[in-house]
Write a structure and sequence with these properties.
CATH architecture: 2-Layer Sandwich
Shape: globular
Strand content: 15-25%
Order of helices and strands: HEEEHHHHEHEHHEEEHHEHHEH
Strand order of the largest sheet: 3-2-1-4-5
CATH class: Alpha Beta
Structural class: alpha/beta
CATH topology: Nucleotidyltransferase, domain 5
Helix content: 40-55%
CATH superfamily: ATPase, nucleotide binding domain
Keywords: Signal
Number of strands: 10
């Protein structure tokens, strides 16, 4: 009888252990099948997850501290531009060699590649730590970043590398600026045959071309980025149409004539962008940033009016402004993960 009792106890222990192992395995599998997208904005960052069933989970918004905001503000000034990978030619690479040597020395010493990268590291770590309770430890992601003219691809990749966070490439290769990520978040520029790189490229050539205006609008800033889009791919070029104002955030627009100032700023940008080109018949306007700021109907109307003054119809996309770029980044991350899994087979 005693032996029977011990056998029953042993059997119960084994069953419990197996159940615990299976539950842990199921949880781990669920987490591994989730793809993480991170989006950085002028004064905050957001993080979203894309599941295998196509659904998204918006995890969190984290506001940046004063150091983060000042870095984005300073990097939005064209006065401090410098060569950076990917280079246009060997001359650019040679001119940038001393700076790259200094960055490499800092990395070998276990420090971020630059002080600016250190600030980005802090922001990314806060986002990753907040999301880890849902996803488990984050080991890879796609990271989108704002259209600050001097915020370079290498800064994002080096910040991720410092955190041992793999910046996924997939078909898009480079980490996307916010316009590209938000474009993907709205379901545009995405091939269906993404598991086959050649088919995806061929399919991408047949996707509709759009003239896109990205308007990132937060409490503290108005950032603009314009470009022609087909595939949701960023080439990490340094020469792109952008504009930034840190005086026209939604806090300032509460003042009299604030929305009119936004309209004038957007119109000035569009006139510069199309000074040698015929404005398109229709312009896709993607608004991102802070939810409350973007949903200001006066500001939306101001942006729309500026586009219409150029003779273009405005296709206004204003849904999920805080998370749409993070969702687009998560979609690109999921596709990259699926590709990696196929290569491992």
């Amino acid at each position: 009888m005693h032996r029977v009792g011990l056998s029953l106890v042993s059997a119960c222990i084994i069953i419990c252990l197996l159940w615990s192992f299976q539950s842990t395995r199921m949880e781990t599998t669920a987490r591994e099948s989730s793809a993480v997208g991170i989006s950085l904005a002028a004064n905050h960052g957001t993080i979203s997850v894309r599941h295998d069933d196509g659904s998204f989970k918006d995890i969190s918004r984290i506001d940046g501290d004063e150091h983060y905001f000042r870095v984005i503000q300073r990097l939005s000034s064209p006065c401090i531009t410098h060569p950076s990978p990917p280079y246009h030619d060997l001359e650019e690479m040679w001119k940038d060699w001393p700076r790259q040597a200094w960055r490499s020395a800092r990395k070998r010493a276990g420090r971020p590649a630059s002080s600016d990268v250190g600030v980005l590291v802090d922001m990314l770590k806060r986002l990753a730590d907040t999301a880890s309770s849902y996803t488990g430890p984050i080991v890879s992601a796609v990271i989108s970043y704002p259209s600050a003219i001097c915020l370079y691809q290498e800064d994002i990749v080096d910040a991720a590398e410092y955190l041992s966070l793999r910046a996924l490439k997939g078909n898009h290769f480079y980490q996307p600026r916010e316009m590209v990520a938000a474009y993907a978040g709205h379901g545009m520029g995405l091939c269906k045959s993404f598991k086959d790189k050649e088919k995806c490229t061929t399919e991408g050539l047949k996707l509709p071309e759009r003239d896109v205006l990205l308007v990132e609008y937060t409490e503290v800033a108005l950032l603009l980025h314009g470009g022609g889009m087909r595939e949701a791919i960023d080439l990490a070029t340094h020469d792109f149409d952008e504009a930034a104002s840190f005086k026209l955030g939604s806090k300032a627009v509460c003042e009299k004539y604030g929305a009119l100032k936004v309209q004038e700023f957007v119109l000035q940008f569009l006139r510069r962008r199309y000074r040698f080109l015929e404005p398109p018949q229709k312009m896709t306007v993607i608004m991102t940033g802070s939810e409350e700021s973007v949903q200001n109907s006066e500001v939306q109307e101001a942006v729309k009016t500026a586009v219409e003054e150029m003779g273009s119809a405005a296709d206004m996309l204003t849904s999920l402004p805080e998370y749409i770029a993070a969702r687009g980044a998560a979609e690109l991350a999921w596709r990259a993960q699926v590709q990696d899994e196929r290569m491992d087979l």
